[in-house]
Amino acid sequence: MSILIVGGDRLGKIPDNLKSLGFTEIEHLSGRKIGHIAVDLPHEIDVVLVFTDFVSHGLAAKIKKDARKKGVRTIFARRSWAYIAKAWKGFING
Fold first, then answer.
1. Which family does the entry's similarity section mention (predicted)?
2. What's the pLDDT at 60?
3. CATH at 14
């Protein structure tokens, strides 16, 4: 599976934790640059993880809209493994 992480400058151990969930391809977009709002989602992406505490409302809305168009599921969470794990459980159960 592949995942695009949007938000945050540093990811720490989050990529390692995502690998333990079965993600083999992990891409990261900090979302800090003004041009990031114009970036399109990669073609072969299974999940988008948006760090709500590191992106603007405009970028979050664009990612959500683009993901819906492409049929890609989106997870919104704070940049903390506890929040990500909780959102992931809701994601796989919902």
1. Belongs to the UPF0751 family.
2. 87
3. 3.40.50
Domain count, the chain: 1
Residues 55, 27: Cα–Cα separation, whole Å: 16
Q: What b/e string do you get for 32-43 counting C-beta neighbours within 10 Å, with b at 16 or more? A: eeeebeebebee
Reported as type and span, the H/E element at residue 49 is strand 47-51
Range of the domain at 67: 2-93
Taking 50 as the pLDDT cut, the residues of the chain under it are: none
pLDDT of residue 93: 72
pTM for the model stands at 0.87
**SS3 at position 73:** strand
